[in-house]
Design a protein that fits this description.
This protein is mainly α. The chain contains 30 helices and 8 strands. Strands 2-1-3-4 form a 4-stranded parallel sheet.
């Protein structure tokens, strides 16, 4: 227990630390509250409390990659969370003549886990110090073409990481040291094996020296916290608190990549999208403070891994350092001097994003850098009229003809000539509405998928219909390239059409395009369009399970690898159905290293389909194709018309004889029944 003078000094030190820390925390709070968007209600946050606590304590998302680093990280994080209780217990014992939690089974277990947490944290911190400063892990670096704020370029991350690492190392280390002196005076404790082992070193010391050692250990351990606390909001270690708040406060989305709408009917809104950091949604300002700087997001980013200027990690880190450097001005309500494009992310990186959602999915602290980029695109398109020139044709086509190919709407049904594909006018009593989509309607290669699916639907005897010339682009490419006004116009028109033809009956919509699936099923509800939308692989899986179609099993095993479209697997969780269909055909399914929800993008999403790819070390589609070819498969199966185009183009360029087919084509080729034709 502390002496009276020590207790008085401790109280003064705590008061000073809390005051100066409170000033810093309040500034951060003021900055975050400047962000746009509705603040969550207490009820909403309480409804997510268990999920947030579970994700925060277990760091659940971190285990998707880097298993060894993840293990050492959780050794630190869980140990350090437990150290909140340890430090509280040490303070109680220092101020009062008691044993925290007593000498009973609860107290014994507490002391055992405290001792275990001490060693766990020390081992974990030493690992990360060696990883960053001795072995210089390349995963913690950036391409030379990635934009970084000046402090980061001057070694800010390494310096801040070193400060945090030594704080943890010395805080926990001195606590272990002080506790060992205490145990040497008490004769050891079987429930604290590591501290007891260390205490053996002091048995030859005098009692007075050991008492001084105990007090010195306490003051150094707790004193480091009191000294560090005011600095805490400025450090990367701030993520320890903010990540939990991030899980607690994130908006509920219908899917991982569902964008919030813009209210164009709000006449008070003078500016659209995001230009400056304070215009970001407030939860995305929390992202900057939550970032753990682990670079997992850039590891899975198709733009970064193919040498583009985009790094989702650098975006969050640049935001963090800018906020720290301008905290006083921003907390005081001043407008930031620079736009995000000036310091956080270059314009080419803004347009390199494929909106695949991999960075959002992989982030262990719940950050969403993809949305920052899409909000910046909105400002560039709607306010600055600044976007890649190639998108003009796609925009014009969607506006005038309802499709980005800019082909007449009268040609939308040309692909179906000679097939039994009724429109809703011809079959108003349909049970299933087939949303064909623009690609299968106008792109020659994707039309093969549409014809194959028509063959299967007729073979199954389904009562279906299509919209025909009434169908227009869902607006996915417009929305994800920032043209929210065009998306709003297309969505309103489509919803009006769908609500009219769907009527009051419970009818489903099927589509071959995951982007249409996502937009119709996950985003049209924002404007009153609530529909049950399924992917054609789900429908085909249902039909085979119900024996409504029979698929011939190939006599020779076909070696196939399936490329999961981002908006099918990661965005909508449809992973098993495509694989089950392929196995029905006696295919030998070979998985690529990146598959399922962790699939790698084909490079066409985020409106990349309609523009030239930004300069980099390699095209995204070729990178994915080479990964598929390396499996030894003879066929690349896909479930998306964009992926079909990108993989087909890559296959032609590589000229290695790999065939690219949509799953609908594979099933249609193996049908045992012949479809009815006109």
């Amino acid at each position: 227990m502390l002496t009276l003078i020590e207790k008085l000094l401790f109280i003064v030190a705590v008061a000073a630390s809390l005051y100066f820390a409170g000033v810093g925390f309040y500034k951060v709070y003021k900055v975050i509250m400047r962000g746009s968007g509705e603040k969550p209600s207490f009820r909403d946050m309480m409804s997510r409390l268990w999920y947030a606590a579970y994700s925060w304590i277990t760091t659940r998302p971190i285990w998707k990659t880097r298993p060894w680093s993840s293990l050492f990280h959780i050794m630190i994080s869980v140990g350090f969370v437990f150290y909140f209780l340890v430090n509280f217990g040490d303070i109680i014992e220092a101020l009062f003549p008691v044993t925290f939690l007593g000498h009973n089974i609860i107290g014994d277990l507490y002391r055992f886990f405290a001792d275990l947490a001490t060693i766990s944290v020390l081992i974990g911190v030493i690992y990360f110090i060696l990883r960053r400063f001795v072995f210089n892990d390349k995963a913690l670096t950036y391409h030379e073409n990635v934009k970084l704020v000046e402090r980061v370029k001057q070694g800010g991350i390494r310096r801040d990481s070193l400060i945090v690492a030594f704080f943890i190392l010395f805080h926990v280390g001195f606590r272990w040291l002080g506790n060992s002196f205490k145990l040497s005076l008490e004769g050891g404790d079987a429930w604290q094996p590591f501290s007891t082992a260390l205490s053996q070193l002091w048995l030859g010391w005098g009692e007075g020296a050991r008492i001084v050692g105990e007090h010195l250990g306490f003051w150094l351990a707790i004193g480091l916290i009191l000294a560090f606390l005011p600095y805490f909001p400025y450090t990367k270690h701030f993520h320890l608190i903010m990540s939990g708040f991030n899980f607690l406060s994130k908006p509920k989305r219908t899917s991982l990549g569902a964008l919030e709408p813009i209210d164009f009917e709000d006449e008070s809104q003078q500016e659209f999208g995001v230009n400056k950091i304070e215009q970001l949604p407030w939860t995305h300002l929390v992202d900057a403070y939550s970032c753990i700087m682990c670079n997992r997001c850039q590891d899975v980013c198709p733009a970064y891994t193919t040498g583009k200027e985009l790094s989702p990690s650098a975006l969050e880190i640049n935001k963090r350092y800018y906020l720290n450097e301008h905290l006083d001005e921003l907390a005081g309500g001043k407008e930031s001097e620079f736009s995000l494009i000036d310091f956080a992310i270059p314009e080419s990186a803004v347009w390199a994003c494929t909106a695949c959602g991999a960075c959002v999915d992989i982030c262990p602290v719940g950050n969403e850098p993809m949305f920052d980029i899409l909000y910046i695109r909105r400002h560039q398109v709607l306010m600055e009229n600044a976007f890649p020139s190639e998108l003009k044709t796609a925009y014009r086509g969607m506006e005038r003809n309802g499709n980005p190919w800019n082909i007449s709407a009268r040609d939308r049904m040309n692909w179906a000539k000679g097939l039994q594909v009724p429109t809703v006018d011809e079959n108003p009593d349909f049970e299933l509405l087939w949303w064909v989509g623009c690609a299968p309607s106008y792109d020659p290669r994707a039309q093969d998928t549409a014809r194959a699916l028509a063959k299967v639907l007729n073979a199954a005897g389904l009562n279906f219909a299509v919209l025909g010339e009434m169908e227009r682009c869902t607006g996915d490419s417009a929305r994800r390239s920032g043209n929210e006004a065009l998306f709003f116009e297309l969505a309103q028109g489509n919803i009006e059409t769908l609500n009219e033809v769907m009527g009051e009956q419970k009818r489903r919509i099927v589509t071959t395009c995951p982007h249409c699936l996502h937009t119709l099923g996950k985003e049209y509800s924002q404007y009153g369009g609530n529909y049950e939308v399924i992917h054609h692989t789900q429908l085909l899986s249902e039909l085979t399970a119900a024996k409504k179609i029979s698929v011939q099993r190939a006599s020779d095993v076909d070696m196939i690898t399936f490329h999961d479209p981002c908006y099918l697997g990661r965005q909508n969780g449809i992973v098993e159905e495509p694989r089950n269909l392929l196995l029905e055909t006696n295919a030998f399914l070979i998985e690529m290293p990146r598959h399922g929800k962790q699939s790698f993008c084909c490079g066409a999403g985020g409106a990349q389909m309609w523009k030239e790819e930004e300069h980099g070390a390699a095209p995204v589609n070729m990178t994915r194709y080479e990964e598929a070819a390396a499996t030894g498969a003879k066929t690349i199966a896909v479930g998306c018309p964009f992926c079909l185009t990108m993989m087909t183009d890559a296959s032609k360029q590589a000229d290695q004889g790999l065939v690219v087919k949509d799953i609908a084509e594979i099933i249609a080729e193996r049908l045992e029944q012949t479809p009815v034709t006109q």
